Amino acid sequence: MKTLILTLIATTLAVANLQAHCGTCSTSEGAHEHHASCASHQLDPYFAAQAALASDDLAAAKNAAKSMLKTGEEKGCSLEEGACCATELTAATQITEASDIKAARKAFKSWSDTLIAKLDEEGLAEGSAIKMYCPMAFNNMGGAWLQSSKDLRNPYYGSMMLTCGMPQKEYGKGGTQQHYGEHHQH
Predict the structure, then answer these.
(1) Would the pTM of this model clear 0.85, i.e. be above it?
(2) Could you tell me the maximum CA-CA distance found in the chain, to the nearest angstrom?
């Protein structure tokens, strides 16, 4: 119970910090460049969580989520409204508190959806990210996620269906995007 309370306090402080940071950004042309770099720094803990879930490693996914919470406290959020910040931090908190990998994967989907929306809006200042999609995830409702490489590793199924999915889009430096054709791998 003490751990839960401390986690909630840390999350609340991180959200407040992120929302304050988000409010300091303007909508000028320079702000877009700043926002893109914010999305880039959020990818490191995200990619670590994705790889951990694809490897069925709940402990490593929890560590990656803790890293996201720390990054959130230190760096802030990339969108002007605070809702994105709260969604990402809530998802990261849920992963750290997950009692099983299924719960962590559900929270990771929320984190994925928010981060993908950021990249669609802002792009990346550096590096690249590949958007993958598995139509079978979550009882055939489907689920998208980001990866650092084209080597498909499904975080929603792990070893059960590690390569189930397809690449949909690649985000590159400066907001460039490349879309892939529709094909399905199993």
Answers:
(1) no
(2) 49
Residues comprising the chain, all counted: 186
- One-letter amino acid at 13 equals L
108-155 pLDDT, tens digit per residue, is 999 999 999 988 888 887 889 999 999 999 999 999 999 999 999 999
The two three-digit tokens of residue 127, written as one number: 């590096």
Cβ atoms within 10 A of the Cβ of 125, count? 19
Strand partners, 170: 130, 178
Q: Are 9 and 85 in contact (CB under 8 A)?
A: no
CA–CA separation, 124 and 25 (whole Å): 17
Rg (CA), the chain: 16
Run of H or E residues at 133: strand 129-134
